[in-house]
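Lest this sound abstract, we think one record worth quoting, the chain in one-letter code, the fold tokenised, each line plainly labelled:

>
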Amino acid sequence: MRFLDSVPVRREIQSRYRQLLGAWICSAILLPGLCLASESPACDIITDPIAVVECALAKSPELRNEQQEVQVLRGQRVRAQSLLPAHPSVQVSFAGRRPPTAGASGAGQTTFNWYVALAQEFEIAGQRSARVRAADTAIAAQQRRVLVTAQEVASAALLTYYDALASAETLTLGREVAAIAEQLATVGAARSQAALASPVDARVAQAESARLFALRYEAERRTEELKVSLAAQLGQPTLSEIRGSLDTLPGNDHGAAQTEALVAQALMLRGDVAAARLEQELRIARVQVLRRERAPNLTLSFLAQRDGFDEQVFGAGISLPLPLPAPLGPSRAGEILATEAQVTQAGLTIERLQRQVRAEVLRALHREHSYRSQARLYPAELVAQARTDLAAIAEALASRQLAPRDALLVQRSLVEFLMGSVEVRRGQALSRVERLRACGQPLIPRSEGGPR
């Protein structure tokens, strides 16, 4: 890794650092929905995905912790840009001088002596500039981690939000079929008592009624659990209301964009990949710091004293430690070797993340395409007609126009169809969120996620 000391390589590192810092600024512009609002929004009533993102980011302790880490690193940069490596050293001493009493000429003569020495250590190998560059790279890497955390927090909240909407729709469907379940049990028992149906048919009707009621209770439990989870993600004790629609998908469709183009876009926009690159730059900068710290610091000293019998002495000095190679003296060789190995590790981390990002993008694209194709099996007109037919079954059972055996077959098909529709729309919304996260794209479009 000695090639890192060359001037062209250092210039290349600085150039790449500026490019990555520019990419971070562009990512901040591309993610307007992830920017924290100046005022904390009201989060007890959720009306749309924008409110979910705003509240999740405004109330996230993980995000605030990462932002505070940026302040920690800025404080370390203040320390790194100190001009002097240590405080100046001042030494003052006083003494009284008296000659021997043997001589008659100087007998009894005394004088007062004083000594003042000032010493200051200086770095002469550019250690300060290397430390400042390392601190700047650390700040840029942490700012990228802030974006990564924001994207993860927002996407997790959106996933829970769409899960809650799907569960709420399932609960509505469960309440609708509860009327059918009640009519099935009532009509089946009545027909069995009147000897119009066999006891087996009555028991089958009761079992189907229990299944339909269980669907409702299961939907109620899941809805409450998801409301609690979403409230925790938004930093609220409870949520008064959750509104929205599974048909309002987050973000924009990637259209006819090629898969490789989306993979390349993800590798450019994903904050974790950029943070890993900056982490490698940080370790390279630390190698530079360690190499420059091997150079001994120069110490300049100045001396003023009144010595002897009223003798004025002024002087200056220079000192330079003599570094000895390991193992004779302390050396940075081991630390440099370890940090160079960490640079290699950082490169391997980048490679691993690039493979992971590619796999995530491909999986997300495949899932979204599959759900989009499956959604065509559930046209809106057919879903609306199925709900109408489901309500008609309960009325037909109540008016004895439909036999329980026929109602069992019809309602089961309609309920499974409607539940399948809800599940597909849920999967489509979740896959869209996952694709946006995997590709590093804004979760909320600019037109929707701008300042309110």
Summary: Residues 42-83+127-296+336-449 form a domain with the Outer membrane efflux proteins (OEP) fold (CATH 1.20.1600.10). The first strand starts at residue 45 and ends at 46. The CA atoms of residues 63 and 407 lie 53 Å apart. The radius of gyration is 37 Å.
